[in-house]
Amino acid sequence: MNPQNLRIPGPTPVPPEVMQAMQRPMIPHRGNEFRQIHKNLVQKIQEILRTDSNVFVMPGSGSIGWEAAIVNTLSPGDHVISFVCGDFGARFAGVADAYGLNVRTYKVKPGHAVDELMVRRALAEHPQAKAVLYTHNETSTGITNPLQRVGPIVRDHGALLIVDAVSSAGAVHIDTDLWGVDVLLSGSQKGWMSPPGLAIVSANDRAMAATSQASFPRSFLDFEAWSSSVAKGDTPATAPLTLYFALDAACSLILDEGMAARTERHDEAGRRTRQTFEDAGFKLFADTAYASSTLTAIEVPGGAGAKDLVETVRERYDIDVAAGQADLSDQIIRVGHMGWFEQEDIARAANAVVACATVMAE
Amino acid sequence: MNPQNLRIPGPTPVPPEVMQAMQRPMIPHRGNEFRQIHKNLVQKIQEILRTDSNVFVMPGSGSIGWEAAIVNTLSPGDHVISFVCGDFGARFAGVADAYGLNVRTYKVKPGHAVDELMVRRALAEHPQAKAVLYTHNETSTGITNPLQRVGPIVRDHGALLIVDAVSSAGAVHIDTDLWGVDVLLSGSQKGWMSPPGLAIVSANDRAMAATSQASFPRSFLDFEAWSSSVAKGDTPATAPLTLYFALDAACSLILDEGMAARTERHDEAGRRTRQTFEDAGFKLFADTAYASSTLTAIEVPGGAGAKDLVETVRERYDIDVAAGQADLSDQIIRVGHMGWFEQEDIARAANAVVACATVMAE
Asked: How far apart are CA B271 and CA B322, in angstroms?
């Protein structure tokens, strides 16, 4: 099996250095060796995310990050604004709803972005909103929303800005503190080049202040427990050592590459992939003004057959790409270009999709 | 570093077959290959735990299992009985308390067991109890409580029996269904010979019926979401693939050894370790009638100095043993004998403790 052929939008291939890190034997999870690894890991993540805030590396996936943000900063009945431009935004709103929040959802057509005009309007219509749930990169459609412009608007209003950066963080530039993000959440298995199993969460002082008021019962996800543990290098419960070793090695690779070069590599992958599909006559699914640098979605010719196409690409080329999600499951194809790749890897995947779609259409 | 020298009560050493399994490249988490692995893993766990119930392999640690059991089967204000014979029982009760349950706690002196008489009395005193929180093996003291006798008593009463089997499951015989356990929770890093990062939870039909009545808001831990996903081989969120590969390999090793032989190996380790310490004149901390087969605790001569002794054993012998927890942190030494070991490994650790304690007492 060639791990380079995994071109779904996560899990993504794991580099050899990270695989090797997972061969490290177990160590005491309450010892100084672990504490030093943990402290270094937190510092690396802070550098990658450009934040001085708390960083919590929690067992779980990106979706546990949604729940952690909600239970720690809000209380039942609180008003929140959620912006939905795809399946992950909808699921994030669904968690808020399951927790009994007063959720005002603003939806845009999948493939379109949630821009600053919409955010301004929503805040004007719901001035009592305590928090805004915002998806940076919508993994189901290939849209990157303009977080850098939306952040300051939300900060001016005073609401907390909770950002799902599951499929952008670690891959492309995010200026967490400068952009006014209060809680950011991501998952280890996408831009971070690590296996799934960790949620990466940052929470600034505003988020921590909200935590002291938030009344949802919580234990495992409690930011205050995490904060006081992390200050000592500890974790509230036994840390998933192997995944910490992996993420630590991956963060070193990320910093070695440098976030500027890394962002440009992802941007170029996006440009090239879109060009490949457009040259072959395919319709890009996402508004090109907001096209994601970590994944590209195209409409399947004829409007259906994405699942068959994914199977065909796998059978003929041993390459995994993804169909759509929810309502779009059979209508679009998604090619991931995030984390560990060279441009040729992505070109091979895009060309395989083109070739199979062309044959299937004949 | 010799992983065999890790003799704390978890994380425990990980066998080479399990380390090797973690070198498997990433695969699509929504594909048939993963579904097959997941289905096989669940079957193996069911066989090991002797249960036909739902099995959920959740990202997290044993303590997420406490929370999962509580939020899925109970509602705010419900009466529960908790039995505390050490730090982990106290923490389990603490989670119930944080969730606003009406917790009636029965405490025994650390080093003693929660026997069937106490359970009978507690149920008679609190007939309205909806659930009983019971620790099978108390990792902080080295007591194994008589679950096989307590289970039928709780079932007769009608309360749900929620069992913390973090440091017993996978290592020693547990007859989950026969003993009347409704929810069992464990962690991958102890008897299961895997890295930390997974909670292993079983939930029977009675627990699932309670779930449909339980009113705590929940998302990531929701048993119904897990149950419907697992039925298809899926997980509600992205599964931590590498840790699943590891646990799957470990379960194969467990079944290859056989639970009867495995239980006897652990029982023998317990007997030998206790003998070693008693022969050297040390006082065993736990009531020998309920001595654990997965870890042994001794009182430090003079009543204090456990932390220094742990450091000395590490420095002189490159062996990690553990001091106590909470109030007992400097008063007892705990030697883990769970998961992957041969008798000589444990003898070496026990002898090192004896030698260092003797030298330090001089």
From this structure: 19
Q: Which residues of B touch A189 (CB under 8 A)?
A: 26, 238
Per CB-CB distance under 8 Å, the chain A contacts of B19 are: 23, 25
Picking from B13, B197, B322, the nearest residue to A240 by CB comes out as B197
Q: What is the ipTM of this complex?
A: 0.97
- Of the partner residues B29, B66, B243, the one whose CB lies closest to the CB of residue A11: B29
Structure tokens at B245: 């590969």
Identify whether residues A233 and A340 lie together within a single domain: no
- State the Cα–Cα distance between residues A185 and A278, nearest whole angstrom: 33
d(CA B176, CA A62): 32
Residues of B in contact with A61 (CB under 8 A): 59, 237-238, 240
How far apart are the C-alpha atoms of B57 and B41, rounded to whole Å? 9
pTM of the model: 0.97
- Model pLDDT for residues A74-87, shown as the tens digit of each residue: 999 999 999 999 99
Helix B241-257 vs helix A241-257: crossing angle, to nearest 10: 150
Average pLDDT over residues B276-300: 98
Does B203 lie in the same domain as B179?
yes
Tens of pLDDT along B251-263?
999 999 999 999 9
Q: What is the CA radius of gyration of chain A?
A: 20
Which structural domain range is residue A21 located in? 16-256
Q: What DSSP character marks residue A258?
A: -
Q: Which residues pair with A323 in a beta bridge?
A: A333
Q: Is B326 on the interface with A (CB under 8 A)?
A: no
d(CA B163, CA B183): 6
Q: Which residues pair with A102 in a beta bridge?
A: A79
Q: CATH number for the domain including A103?
A: 3.40.640.10
User: Which 3 state secondary structure label does DSSP give B62?
Assistant: helix
Q: What is the pLDDT of residues A164-222, one digit of tens each?
A: 999 999 999 999 999 999 999 999 999 999 999 999 999 999 999 999 999 999 999 99
Residues A318 and A351 in one domain: yes
Q: Domain ends where: A202, A231, A256?
A: A256
> What integer is the mean pLDDT of B230-247?
97
Number of domains chain A contains: 2
Q: Please report the pLDDT score of residue B1 as a whole number.
A: 40
pLDDT (tens digit per residue) in A229-288? 999 999 999 999 999 999 999 999 999 999 999 999 999 999 999 999 999 999 999 999
What's the rounded Cα separation, in Å, for the pair A289 and A143? 9
C-alpha count within 13 angstroms, C-beta hemisphere, residue A55: 23
